[in-house]
Amino acid sequence: MSPKRLGSSGLKAVVKVEEEIYLNALRLVPGLGSGRLSQLLAGFPGAKGVWQARPEELARILGPGKQVEALTHGRTVIEPEREWEKLLLAGIRVTTLGSSDYPSNLAEIYNPPLILYYRGSLDGLDLSLAIVGSRQATPYGRVAATTLARDMGAAGFAIVSGFARGVDSAAHRGALNAQARTVAVFGCGLDTIYPRENRSLCAEIIERGAVVSDFPLGVQPLSANFPARNRIISGLSLGTLVVEGREKSGSLITADFALEQGRDVFAVPGPINSEYSRGPHKLLKQGAKLVESAGDILEEYAHLVSPALQIKFAEFSYPAEYTGLMEILSLEPLHVDVICRKLKTAPEKLAALLLQLELSGRIRQLSGGYYVRNFL
User: Residues 96-152: pLDDT tens digits?
Assistant: First the structure.
């Protein structure tokens, strides 16, 4: 059907797809990031206009040099329609800045990505929290991330993280445990699952949310890509929670991006003798809000959470051992070995439950492995 016979909505759809096809092709040009691409789009009638521009026209915006050479050479080896077909065959969808499905939180940041690749659904991300932390997470960090992600998910928040080992993976799984939405932001093209052991987790995330990247197919998970990935994690979210991390780590880079974007920063305190506590403790000294339970975060967003969701959060159930534990604990200290015998449960299962309840403020740990119920 010719463009003249298309209705206005149909013609707009054709133009939109054409724009996406050429934006994808431009993203495949090495060294042409969102900043430079935005400059080019401001000087030409759309991505196709940039793609077809003469070298001297490109040089007037980019200046003479390697970027013009890279773009000129890229047009000789990149076939826009063929690259688009690769995305379709891989089940990867595209959204562009200004499209109805482009995440609203991300659209509000300075210089947002012009194009996002995703699998799954980007619906329901207005109420989102980023949870990030160390790849070498301690048992404390993994339980804290899982518990907080689960509880925030139960309160209606989508959980955003970076799909890495450790805290990120624990956060995604915590959200999935609550049947909540979760989004994994990749530092590579969506045709690469990194780390590989998260392949099954990736499939679960796509069912309950989305995997997202602003990198086109074929881009490998290089360390240089992760700051851009971290910027998207914070940009998608109302706030960023750091669970564990060294003093100089990707988690703190994400927190810095959150501050630049005018978003909230939260941190979970940890043992003072752990190097993975230094990052969160640094943030706390700088004014981040200390988080011991999901309630500490929900206080900041009470105006956004409906009464029904607040009730759902308050009634979120703990494991079966919870009731028995709360019955035997009192103001009189009880040793963990005695608790374990009374409940007839495995020590590792009890340890996880005790940590969850301590983080939520329901119980307190005393020295020597003793616990009391917190009636405050």
Answer: 999 999 999 999 999 999 999 999 999 999 999 999 999 999 989 999 999 999 999
pLDDT at 351 over 70: yes
- pLDDT at res. 357: 80
Whole-number Å distance between alpha carbons of 54 and 291: 55
Structural domain range at position 38: 3-84
Does some domain include residue 108? no
Q: How many residues does the chain have?
A: 376
Q: Is the pLDDT score of 322 beyond 90?
A: no
Distance between terminal CA atoms of the chain?
71
Of the candidates 274, 207, 221, the one whose C-alpha atom is nearest the C-alpha of residue 246 is 274
Per-residue CA distances from 110 to 34, 95, 320 (Å): 11, 18, 47
Say if residue 207 is in the same domain as residue 326. Answer: no
**CB atoms closer than 10 angstroms to residue 296:** 18
Among candidates 265, 252, 251, 319, which has minimal Cα distance to 296? 265
* Whole-number pLDDT of residue 8: 47
Residues 188 and 207 in one domain: yes
344 burial type by CB count under 10 A (0-12 exposed, 13-18 middle, 19+ buried): exposed
Neighbours of 9 (CB within 10 A): 8
